[in-house]
Amino acid sequence: MTAASHHIPATIATERLLLRPFAPGDAGDRYAYQSLPEVSRYLYRPPLSRKACAESIVARAAGTDWKADGDTLLLAVCRADEPGVIGEVALTLRSARARQAEIGWVFNPQYAGQGYATEAARALAALGFGQLGVHRVFARLDVLNVASVRVCERLGMRREAHLVDNDLDGDRWGSEYLYALLSHEWKG
């Protein structure tokens, strides 16, 4: 996988959403959900500060080459019919040699239950399996994150593992599910 062999579109449009790179003006919208304890608890880290949200947007402003382990494509998710960021999706190249990518999503809870996470994750998985040539997409999520479990299942991913007490979130041990899907299984 080399940067020259893959075109990453600037914007991905779905039926109801636009997925695009974050812009500096998005920091407030991102902070609105990344600062919430009920969001960060599933990410095994403290809530992000406004400054951390702004700094991470600036750090990723140049995009990704999508060629080396750890390269991450982070996209803001916006509703097509109104301004503002409602969430984000990320695709991280975990193994360039084996063409393995980890997918993730974080959404503002006020937009929960409307299918936005599934729609955005489906578009990102399609990009991964299609233009980026990924062989396997996987997701790791807290077993208590029922909404994300449903997203994985709607995407056709299979549960491959249940990791018990594998991460520490402050003073709480967390268990994770590992979901995955291979390129030949992808139905888009």
UniProtKB/TrEMBL annotation:
Pfam families for this protein: Acetyltransf_3
Keywords for this protein: Plasmid
Organism domain of life: Bacteria
Residues of the N-acetyltransferase domain: 17-179
Record InterPro entries: Acyl_CoA_acyltransferase, GNAT_dom, N-acetyltransferase
The name this protein goes by in its record: Acetyltransferase
Originating species: Streptomyces nigrescens
